[in-house]
TrEMBL record:
InterPro entries, per the entry: Glyco_trans_51 (IPR001264), Glycosyltr_51/Transpeptidase (IPR050396), Lysozyme-like_dom_sf (IPR023346), PBP_transglycosylase (IPR036950)
Protein's recorded name: Transglycosylase domain-containing protein
Organism: Treponema pedis
Glycosyl transferase family domain: residues covered: 63-224
Pfam family, one: Transgly
GO molecular function list: peptidoglycan glycosyltransferase activity
Recorded metabolic or biological pathway in which this protein acts: Cell wall biogenesis; peptidoglycan biosynthesis
Residue ranges crossing the lipid bilayer per the database entry: 12-32
A single Gene Ontology CC term: outer membrane-bounded periplasmic space
Presence of the UniProt keyword Lyase in the record: no
SUPFAM superfamilies: Lysozyme-like
GO biological process: peptidoglycan biosynthetic process
KW Transferase (keyword) present: yes
């Protein structure tokens, strides 16, 4: 074999392997990056940003366009309830996994989950309600790639825009207007707490149905917020 060719081959080979690995990773990311192909409600706003009117989306859902601004009360309530380590993990929270394992082990039934906000975004993009192991694993992988590709605020914004709120109400802004007749940025702490806990069981605990269950969940969250010095006593707000 020609020595010059052999040397060139030795030089090119590592680059070729690196190129193939890069192509593989890029394809992997494309496959496991969540995508939302949602249609949104038709909305009309005034020049100062006030909602003048809206119509349901073509699929019959009340789903408002995604906003990059997440109201602070809602964000605080949501992360306290769903994912307190949100800013410190890469899609999977090891502490929550361990906690859920022992909670479920000692209870001999599933009483606690370990899904992070990022994993829930992954699941929402699939529109798949099956909770099999393979699906859970896929959600975990997708959550990791979500964390690599997007900022924490982007992930929160996607969750807020696509979380289910019962019936044909999807997303924080639609739920806020539907249930409390005000924009999400104007919610009280009690109202923000309701919308933080509601996606966890949207078909069971929506306002007007099973109200006592919803109130109990809301009040427990408000109490935790109070213990963490994030709010003052406010659980008496009417639902």
């Amino acid at each position: 074999m020609n020595i010059k060719f052999f040397l060139n081959l030795k030089t090119i080979k590592p680059f070729g392997i690196s190129f193939l690995c890069a192509c593989f990773m890029f394809s992997f990311i494309l496959i496991f990056t969540p995508r939302f192909n949602s249609v949104y409600s038709f909305t009309v706003y005034s020049s100062d940003g006030k909602l003048l009117g809206a119509a349901a989306a073509d699929d019959g859902q009340w789903r408002f366009p995604q906003s990059e601004v997440i109201p602070q009360k809602y964000k605080t309530a949501l992360l306290t309830y769903e994912d307190k380590n949100f800013y410190f993990h890469l899609g999977v929270d090891p502490a929550s996994v361990v906690r859920a394992f022992f909670d479920n082990l000692f209870s001999k039934q599933v009483v606690s989950g370990a899904s992070t906000i990022t994993m829930q975004v992954s699941r929402l993009s699939e529109k798949n309600t099956k909770r099999k192991f393979v699906q859970k694993l896929k959600e975990t992988v997708k959550a990791f790639f979500l964390e690599l590709k997007y900022s924490k605020n982007d992930i929160l914004a996607v969750y807020a825009a696509h979380a289910p709120y019962g019936g044909n109400v999807v997303g924080l802004e639609a739920a806020s207007l539907r249930y409390f007749k005000r924009s999400a940025g104007d919610l009280t702490w009690a109202e923000a707490a309701v919308l933080a806990v509601l996606p966890n069981q949207p078909s069971l605990v929506r306002p007007g149905k099973h109200a006592e269950i919803l109130k109990a969940k809301r009040n427990k969250l408000l109490y935790n917020l109070f213990l963490q010095n994030k709010i003052e006593g406010t659980s008496k707000n009417p639902l």
